[in-house]
Design goal:
Layout (H helix, E strand, L loop, with lengths): L3 E3 L3 E5 L10 E5 L7 E9 L5 E7 L3 E7 L10 E5 L5 E10 L2 E9 L12 E8 L10 E2 L7 E2 L6 E2 L5 E8 H4 L12 E8 L7 E2 L18 E2 L5 E2 L1
Antiparallel strand pairs: 1-4, 2-3, 4-5, 5-6, 6-7, 8-9, 9-10, 10-11, 12-14, 13-14, 14-15, 15-16, 17-18
Length: 231
């Protein structure tokens, strides 16, 4: 799933006000300085003060920037990962755990047996322990499906080291009948579960919407006050 916006596009800035005459809601511009397009910017924070924004650039690389003043100014972009091969990389997401950050992106692969089809993809994960300044080499997350996607909404912390993150996978690709148009996909959605603060992930139960044309895709989740997850 891809949506492009111009590089340096405006993002919504929400900031608490110390004075009654200060605006509570404003628009700030994320100036990346990169050429081309920014796709699917996603925000994450640990303490509500240091905010990270991760995005793909021209669907060929993943970058991160951060702000300490609610989006008024941004640090220069740091590249998290490039395109290691295949068709493109996009839909970046991030899990912020103090100075340790995990960025996960969807890497769409070539499928020689199904040229032009939406047939193969993987989630690549890279990590930093210094607040985003340096990054590990990206590694694929082992998952039991051929085409994975939809990992774009903020992960949700549960108890202890457990965290969950929404994702989806395509049924036609799984059945060896991949489609060539996103509108013809039929997806099932659920959550990936980590018991070790994002180092490894295991799929949970799937949700299917058989009467919907595309099924269930790009799930957003929140934790309710009684501990339940709402998708």
């Amino acid at each position: 799933m891809r949506t492009r916006i111009p590089a340096g596009a405006a993002i919504l800035m929400l900031a608490g006000c110390a004075m009654a005459d200060e605006p509570f809601l404003g628009i700030a511009e994320l100036k990346s300085g990169l050429s081309g397009s920014i796709e699917i910017p996603t925000l994450g924070t640990w303490d509500g003060k240091l905010i990270y924004c991760v995005y793909s650039n021209d669907i060929r690389s993943i970058w991160v920037q951060w702000t300490r003043d609610a989006g008024r100014t941004w640090a220069k972009p740091v590249q998290v990962m490039g395109l290691p091969g295949g068709r493109y990389i996009t839909d970046a997401n991030l899990l912020v755990d103090r100075d340790r950050i995990t960025v996960i992106a969807t890497h769409v692969l070539d499928a020689p047996d199904h040229p032009g089809a939406i047939a193969r993809s993987e989630f690549l994960a890279a990590m930093t322990d210094d607040g985003g300044r340096t990054w590990s080499a990206p590694q694929a997350i082992p998952l039991p499906h051929k085409y994975v996607c939809g990992c774009i909404h903020a992960p949700v912390w549960l108890d202890g080291d457990r965290v969950v993150m929404g994702w989806s996978w395509d049924v036609p690709a799984e059945e060896g009948k991949p489609v060539t148009d996103e509108g013809a996909m039929h997806l099932r959605a659920g959550v990936l579960i980590s018991e070790d603060r994002g180092r490894t992930w295991t799929p949970g139960q799937d949700v299917d919407l058989p009467d919907q044309p595309m099924g269930a895709d790009e799930p957003a989740i929140v934790r309710l006050s009684n501990g339940d997850l709402f998708m």
